[in-house]
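Long-time lurker, first post. I've been practising inverse folding by hand and with some scripts of my own, and I keep getting stuck on stretches where the structure tokens seem ambiguous. Below is the full token string for one chain I'm working on. Before anyone asks, I'm not after the true native sequence, just a reasonable design that respects the backbone. If someone could post their per-position residues I'd love to compare against what I wrote down in my notebook.
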């Protein structure tokens, strides 16, 4: 990976692509404040090259994400559509509930309830559950996966399938990294639990993304560029479906990377086993 291109701006390679599939957390905002230069870069790409779809591992529906954008101050004129892992997880729950009420244990904060509200789903305790929906930790400001060890063992003893609505292990919130649903799912798998993942890096979410873009714009994307800060999600997902990737270095891997050089990038990419066409400290035009 020593030949990875460090860009001065997205404009350096924009002409090679007809569309962007862009991550949200770590690229457009950090959970506390917007990255307005990134929004402007997406806006310029839309004006000069083609459509932009935001692809997020947020365990929430699009309307809820838009409310968060309004609270944080993320502009909504820099993209054409949004796809979330929460939308994909909701579709799975809906399918499972077609034969009758689905008894479901929800692991995650109250703010994620929109994933299953309005469905034929009954939120129950573990002893009565048929399936587990994991959208995160109950209190991700203070808890870690270690706090869930006994609970996960109890779920495994009942052979419950976990639906993971956010494969991210951590996400950047302000200047801190907080654990996500993927961290609990990883621990559940370690003890032999069954997990179904919805979102990046799994190919199904990219099929949904391309289909959504076709419906919104009437266009079939033939050469998208995937933009993101997560090696195991954004970049691995892009690699898996054959899309070029642009790595944003100031996100969750910033401390691990240190100074961004071709050498430090090569070491990080070798360690994680993924690849990218190019890298930037932050997304700018």
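-- Answer (accepted) --
I ran through it position by position. Result:
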């Amino acid at each position: 990976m020593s030949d990875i291109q460090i860009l001065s701006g997205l404009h350096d390679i924009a002409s090679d692509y007809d569309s962007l599939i862009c991550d949200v957390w770590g690229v457009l905002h950090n959970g506390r404040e917007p990255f307005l230069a990134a929004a402007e870069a997406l806006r310029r790409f839309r004006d000069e090259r083609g459509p932009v779809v935001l692809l997020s591992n947020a365990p929430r529906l699009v309307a809820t994400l838009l409310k968060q954008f309004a609270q944080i101050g993320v502009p909504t004129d820099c993209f054409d559509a949004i796809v979330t892992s929460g939308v994909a997880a909701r579709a799975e729950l809906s399918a499972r509930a077609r034969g009758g009420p689905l008894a479901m244990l929800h692991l995650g904060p109250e703010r994620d309830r929109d994933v299953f509200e309005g469905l034929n789903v009954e939120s129950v305790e573990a002893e009565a559950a048929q399936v587990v929906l994991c959208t995160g930790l109950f209190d991700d400001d203070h808890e870690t996966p270690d706090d869930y060890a006994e609970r996960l063992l109890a779920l495994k003893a009942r052979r419950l399938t976990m639906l993971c609505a956010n494969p991210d292990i951590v996400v950047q919130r302000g200047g801190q990294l907080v654990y996500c649903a993927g961290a609990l799912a990883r621990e559940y798998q370690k003890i032999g639990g069954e997990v179904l993942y919805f979102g990046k890096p799994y190919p199904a979410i990219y099929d949904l993304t391309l289909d959504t873009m076709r419906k919104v714009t009437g266009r079939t994307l033939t050469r998208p560029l995937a933009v993101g800060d997560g090696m195991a999600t954004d970049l691995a997902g892009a690699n898996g479906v054959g899309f070029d990737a642009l790595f944003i270095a100031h996100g969750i891997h910033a401390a691990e990377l240190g100074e961004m050089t071709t050498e430090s990038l090569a070491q990080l990419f070798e360690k994680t086993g993924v690849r990218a066409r190019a890298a930037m400290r932050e997304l700018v035009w």
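A couple of notes from the structure itself: DSSP finds nine helices and 14 strands in the chain. The longest helix spans residues 203-217. Happy to go over any region you disagree with.
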